[in-house]
Amino acid sequence: MQIGMMGLGRMGANMVRRLMRGGHECVVYDINPASVADLVKDGAVGAAALEEFIGKLARPRTVWLMLPAAITNRVVEQVAALLEPGDIIVDGGNSHYHDAVDQAVRLQARGLSFVDVGTSGGVWGLERGYCLMIGGPDAAVKHLEPIFATLAPGAGAGSAEGGDLGTAPLGYLHCGPSGAGHFVKMVHNGIEYGVMAAYAEGMNILKQANAGSEHRDADAETSPLAQPQYYRFDIDLPAVAEVWRHGSVIGSWLLDLTAGALKADPALAQFGGRVSDSGEGRWTLKAAIDTGVPAPVLSSALFSRLTSQGESEFADKLLSAMRYAFGGHVEKPKA
Amino acid sequence: MQIGMMGLGRMGANMVRRLMRGGHECVVYDINPASVADLVKDGAVGAAALEEFIGKLARPRTVWLMLPAAITNRVVEQVAALLEPGDIIVDGGNSHYHDAVDQAVRLQARGLSFVDVGTSGGVWGLERGYCLMIGGPDAAVKHLEPIFATLAPGAGAGSAEGGDLGTAPLGYLHCGPSGAGHFVKMVHNGIEYGVMAAYAEGMNILKQANAGSEHRDADAETSPLAQPQYYRFDIDLPAVAEVWRHGSVIGSWLLDLTAGALKADPALAQFGGRVSDSGEGRWTLKAAIDTGVPAPVLSSALFSRLTSQGESEFADKLLSAMRYAFGGHVEKPKA
Amino acid sequence: MQIGMMGLGRMGANMVRRLMRGGHECVVYDINPASVADLVKDGAVGAAALEEFIGKLARPRTVWLMLPAAITNRVVEQVAALLEPGDIIVDGGNSHYHDAVDQAVRLQARGLSFVDVGTSGGVWGLERGYCLMIGGPDAAVKHLEPIFATLAPGAGAGSAEGGDLGTAPLGYLHCGPSGAGHFVKMVHNGIEYGVMAAYAEGMNILKQANAGSEHRDADAETSPLAQPQYYRFDIDLPAVAEVWRHGSVIGSWLLDLTAGALKADPALAQFGGRVSDSGEGRWTLKAAIDTGVPAPVLSSALFSRLTSQGESEFADKLLSAMRYAFGGHVEKPKA
Amino acid sequence: MQIGMMGLGRMGANMVRRLMRGGHECVVYDINPASVADLVKDGAVGAAALEEFIGKLARPRTVWLMLPAAITNRVVEQVAALLEPGDIIVDGGNSHYHDAVDQAVRLQARGLSFVDVGTSGGVWGLERGYCLMIGGPDAAVKHLEPIFATLAPGAGAGSAEGGDLGTAPLGYLHCGPSGAGHFVKMVHNGIEYGVMAAYAEGMNILKQANAGSEHRDADAETSPLAQPQYYRFDIDLPAVAEVWRHGSVIGSWLLDLTAGALKADPALAQFGGRVSDSGEGRWTLKAAIDTGVPAPVLSSALFSRLTSQGESEFADKLLSAMRYAFGGHVEKPKA
Asked: Which part of the chain is the 6-phosphogluconate dehydrogenase C-terminal domain (chains A, B, C, D) (predicted)?
């Protein structure tokens, strides 16, 4: 079937390619003409402006947006102004599910359907297929099923089981009304933060397993290492990550990627350690707080990222100021 | 080759079976005669007492222990007293790696080798193979390689890659001197706690996604839910766990098990929520603390387990006592 | 000066008493007539209905609300409908500062001023005075200064210092525009959660300092205590809390209360350990998340409370389900 | 009475001065002769070498050590070699209580008493008095009571209450056998970390309360601020810290110091934000883990310090590596 895709970054462009491989017709648009041209070369129908993009779509139109969360709301309004009753807007980006809940109400009043599709799979989705978490009205979701089936991994991938879980074993799931897709994807990303941090912390402990062989200051500002004989292991991190992939309890796709990254460069020298967050982890935590769910692991993972962004600096200065005030402790310089 | 296995619980018995399938000769012993008898039926050589067990082993003997951490040290001493120079003791249990470091020194003085083998795979290891993290002297580890190769998943399982990571792609790895195997397994389990908690917290958030449809008290002791319209999702947890297995970033073996458990019983009614810990998570955290490694996610996961065991009760009572003291807040009864 | 107080619970009633002691005229109203009668006995002017209450106030009227957060917004609307331009509504409750920001905009359009006053001091405020964190337009705040000065501890209490901090040494502070008062009070309470939890966790550790003298199971589901000789202290908790009040770094008013509570009953037997939260801790954390501030301590304190309310049950069941799935671990029953 | 003090740093020197003011005779020694000379000027008896120091003490001798934890054990051995049965060694430093437990056993065999005295009060102790947490045999503790009574704040300070708490209201407490003093002091410092972090996190939130007025990138690597209208407060941090000192629930000595530091320099420009830890927080956490006590707040506070020391760098790099691997996310440079 035909679909219009707007926002041709890493995710959007690859999704178009996967859809075209699956026999779908893709009309594409991006503010960057080069991104459009690339996909036209691969067989997509390109558009140079929003109006042209909408004009090339047959009714009922489906416009799928893959945009940064910060601008999605605005673009939804622009697109909606050009659509007609019966048309569908799909938001496949990392938008806040609140927006989906609110947009659906506004668009429904104008006869438009809003479908939010949490899309996981990253740059590997083109080959692996994307995991799709879908929210929206039944009719619109049903209408788009051929698209979802193509984007998702499908029956061939992984150990799909049972039929009573509906389409879940195929890699896509209608999770509920508008907002439910982004909500489930949001929690997916919250979990992702926690899982990633668990590996990162563990690997960091392994990296320090040789601390007993290293020099250590002996002053009142440095905590002593009481039993250095227990910290004399020179662990091969890439090999450990690899061995854990084979038969251990913690095998996972993220571990596969971790092993690959460590094998490529055990020192991870190309990275500085500033870990971004795109909002999903924050929203997950806010949902946990609103509904009273303890989420100490997910919050710890988020806060570690924020700290890596430099956001604890003032708090840290204040701690040093207190230590100076009560104990005369003079701060050591940063390494 | 021949190996003696002592401790025939869930782990030990299955390892014997896998070894016998691989053509090895297994002499087995357990304080529970029925456990011995079961394996004798399957082809193992049984022993009714420790001395008989040792006596049935050809030199150089290998005694592999699969025992609870709390008694391993004592049994190592008993076994060592019956062995001779050149013999090998393997500890495959969840022992503290400190003990391995210390045991190795003591046993080496008596001409014995101590090999610690962190063993992951659980009840699935019989079929999947076990992931083995090995510490000990080179000669002893080399001698045991046929055993390790049989216990581990081997080349057929998973996407093994590269040869420069040694045996890691086969599922076993010599991680360093005595203690290194348990150390790496310890951190593996620490990570496991974190990964498990990430899924559990996320699923708990999904479960509460319908809070806006439920009644809520309006008193000064109950935090209000400001925007109930954003919490009206009735999420199908088994289906979500299943869909995440197909193409998402958080696919993992633990997620596979989670999906299975939720499919079998979405309410998890057979469980009460008291989560045990067997020590590895605690030791991981102590190693992190000793070496100065921040581990907020791993510690949060551990503390959640301890709290589930009732260990925060006094702290909680004290918080209620403070609230009563400054604000006259009368405690609500536990649900 | 004259003030109308609505909401005569623990906080509201005592504030009226302190104001009357300071020579102010208080008109009071509550849906519970007994609460009104009590204060009338003490000299307040009582009202039996909202209209009567408003009617007894001279213009420009000041209506100070001390209500649960869950109903404050609604009552503000009801009161505003009876007021006239130039009148002032004060919200002294634990309301979300978002509401104050929004209410101020709405009320300003009707010529009314909205002043939010975060009020700390609990049941002790009558004697100690209340710490007031104030947000709102300059004119209204200035108009109410005699009220603030009476409610606050004033110069006599504590070691007030400097004049360049304005009225802060007197115990009240105009923190900024509408919402700023509740915002600062919200963060105050967030800190309060953290400080309380720090004492509670520490006291819990002291309580377990004798663990090495107690029996401990030796099974695979119980983490062993490796060095019992280091945990044979029978600590007198009330005495420790008391000694810390005298010269230690952690002396505080909350410690004073803790010492009092432990002295009254070292076992805290009247408490069950369900710790309520009234919303402020949650909002603090949401503000931290919105603005990207790491708050691991404040969030840990909040999550411990939520867990004490039973909110981690499903997550805990899922952890047990996973342990059973991979390791065959059978859950121990809850104590 | 006479006492020998060895280790004349910030703490030791001031304790000598307070003891001399109280009429006690102090023999003093330090490897830094200038430190000795300073106190001789103030009336102390100085010694230029360890043997001379011991030689100047009348029997039964009391040698009080105020040394960095990393060297205390070694010095205890050196001192013990010069003492005779009936003599007392006091360790008033921030030593690990394990050492006190072990030292007491070793020294008792030689007829010496070991008393561990956790000493809180910092640079203010000279004037305020020190809070003393004491472990050791009854006789030795009794013998030293005049010293403790002088060092502690005494009855005049604070709101001492009740007699049934023994000497606790005077600011010193015999907490139990050897090790109990350091154990209680260790937990005191663990709590201190938590309390300090609570204030620091809260102040950091207040500092960011104006985030809605600031520019923010709108890209996929930056979490959007959805409701900037709620973050337009320009909070005066020194004034807020000051007002909280007067009647609020979170009044404390650490808040007094915080207010002082912020008043002196609201930007805390002299500090870089590297927060040291001297070991006590780590040991508290290890004790919590050993005894199964959940300590999420205390651990979060510790880990924030470790992170400020740069110890999460490798973990952070690994997180960025994973994000690059699954999503092609290119790391933003550190600010």
From this structure: 181-333
